[in-house]
Amino acid sequence: SYLQETKKGLEGIVALDTSISFIDGMQGILKYRGIDIEHLAEMSYETISYLLINGILPGEQELAAYSNRLKSERRINGEMIDIMRVCNYGTEALDSLRTAISCTAHMDHENDNNSLDANKNKAVRLIAKLPTMIAALYRCKSGDFPFQPDETLSHGANFLYMLRGEAPSAIEAEAIEKDFILSAEHELNPSTFALRIAASTLADVYSAIITGLCTLKGPLHGGARRGVMEMLDEVAVPENANNYVLYKLSRKEKIMGFGHRVYRTYDPRSRIFKDMAKRVAKENGDPTWYEVAESLEHVMYREFLDVRGRPIYPNVDFYSAVIYKYLRIPPELATSVFAIGRVSGWTAHCFEQYADNRVIRPRAHYI
Ligand code: CMC
């Protein structure tokens, strides 16, 4: 047969060329548009989202103009809030966010315009509106009125403000900003690949984003963040980590927030998240969640090294979830908060697909 051997999960298959991000899974290197993640983590999410969708870092004037555009697009209208009241979530905010993004498409006067300019406008709208929509969903669920965006705050701080009705502390603002930056892009992860397939059929930006969003939901991908938050509560104290891991592994269950298809060493984002989580825990005064996480990391490392001869490391969802605990982000919002960051990477991939398109259509081996 001319068909090649099946690669389960498409492991190791190179599906396309990209200039958006670069991963070296052996050495633990991640770059967006050629810039190391450690360097990017010190910038603002606005800068990073501009970099991802436009391909270059903004100058001072470009950044100011872009920032103003985001400000002008952050608000959501009364109809959207009505929709949120009707389509409020049961256990998972992502279900309602999916509906809200669909409705944003209906309300976008450029919905049918597939030019690059119009598509970039849609990207700005999505980047600006996602935090407002998620905070509003949460507020509506609690029977409260949503807060309007505060134009004086950064992308991250404004989100926490809209969620809680009070501005976050400096360290909390830094933590959520870093979360959005580190979550913004990661090559052909499942949601981005799914989205590129949708884009390769020349489906519009909103349809492609919703494809990505649906794929993010699963516990083996973006849903792991919520899983980690729940695990931290379940384990409760560091002394329980050992028995928890041994019990789960004996039942062949996955421990959320560990392992990665591409990294064979420490994920560089996890390092930054771990450091940030430690600082947030210290500021909070109760380090328990952080200590539980560290114990889980030690036990997992030991178990995998001893039993399988190869260690396992925390992935991007692990210490970010510890940070979410300290930021008082409700677990049912965790996957949606991940999407706030990821939406800029998703739209960048959409544009890259449109720019040099061939429909993505692999083969299957018939048995
Ligand atoms: N807990 C327990 N065992 C694990 C874990 C884990 N978290 N991760 C991998 N393993 C085991 C796995 O069971 C397998 O063992 P065996 O060879 O005996 O069947 C071996 O390690 C190799 O793992 P795999 O499942 O073949 O790896 P994969 O590349 O197919 O999957 C993964 C990668 C991330 C889906 C997987 O590690 C996993 O399910 N992790 C837990 C969920 C999670 O944290 N997902 C977030 C992924 S990273 C960021 C994101 O996408 O959001």
UniProtKB/TrEMBL annotation:
<dbReference type="InterPro" id="IPR016142">
    <property type="entry name" value="Citrate_synth-like_lrg_a-sub"/>
</dbReference>
<comment type="similarity">
    <text>Belongs to the citrate synthase family.</text>
</comment>
<dbReference type="GO" id="GO:0006099">
    <property type="term" value="P:tricarboxylic acid cycle"/>
</dbReference>
<dbReference type="InterPro" id="IPR011278">
    <property type="entry name" value="2-MeCitrate/Citrate_synth_II"/>
</dbReference>
<dbReference type="InterPro" id="IPR024176">
    <property type="entry name" value="Citrate_synthase_bac-typ"/>
</dbReference>
<dbReference type="GO" id="GO:0005737">
    <property type="term" value="C:cytoplasm"/>
</dbReference>
<dbReference type="InterPro" id="IPR036969">
    <property type="entry name" value="Citrate_synthase_sf"/>
</dbReference>
<feature type="active site">
    <location>
        <position position="317"/>
    </location>
</feature>
<dbReference type="Pfam" id="PF00285">
    <property type="entry name" value="Citrate_synt"/>
</dbReference>
<comment type="pathway">
    <text>Carbohydrate metabolism; tricarboxylic acid cycle.</text>
</comment>
<dbReference type="InterPro" id="IPR016143">
    <property type="entry name" value="Citrate_synth-like_sm_a-sub"/>
</dbReference>
<keyword id="KW-0816">Tricarboxylic acid cycle</keyword>
<keyword id="KW-0808">Transferase</keyword>
<protein>
    <recommendedName>
        <fullName>Citrate synthase</fullName>
        <ecNumber>2.3.3.16</ecNumber>
    </recommendedName>
</protein>
<dbReference type="InterPro" id="IPR019810">
    <property type="entry name" value="Citrate_synthase_AS"/>
</dbReference>
<dbReference type="GO" id="GO:0036440">
    <property type="term" value="F:citrate synthase activity"/>
</dbReference>
<dbReference type="InterPro" id="IPR002020">
    <property type="entry name" value="Citrate_synthase"/>
</dbReference>
<feature type="active site">
    <location>
        <position position="260"/>
    </location>
</feature>
<dbReference type="GO" id="GO:0005975">
    <property type="term" value="P:carbohydrate metabolic process"/>
</dbReference>
